[in-house]
Design a protein that fits this description.
The protein has 93 residues and is α+β, with helices and mostly antiparallel strands. The chain has 1 helix and 5 strands, in the order E-E-E-E-H-E. A hairpin with a 2-residue loop joins strand 1 and strand 2.
């Protein structure tokens, strides 16, 4: 199991999608729309990283077609995800 805070990012113009694992093992999704200037936060769901990525892409397509008004928008066949594993950091003041 990946640590809480493990994050995967991808950019599909005009969107940036971030999925992050929560402490209970579920994944949250943040979708950033650079064209409209919106941020969409989806509730935690999915237990596997692959399922979370697939759901994020489905949600992105739904968002672009329904809310961004781009009925022809589709996800590319291949999406490059960038993974980030957080490190424990102790801040001293």
């Amino acid at each position: 199991m990946r640590p809480a805070g493990y994050t995967s990012l991808t950019e599909i113009e005009p969107l940036m999608i971030e999925i992050q694992q929560t402490s209970d093992g579920l994944w949250t999704m943040h979708l950033f729309d650079r064209r409209g200037g919106f941020k969409v936060i989806m509730p935690p769901s999915e237990f596997s990283l692959q399922d979370a990525k697939e759901k994020a892409l489905i949600s992105a397509r739904y968002y672009m077609q329904k809310y961004a008004g781009d009925a022809e928008w589709t996800c590319p066949r291949s999406v490059q995800w960038c993974d980030f594993t957080p490190r424990d950091v102790i801040w001293e003041t």
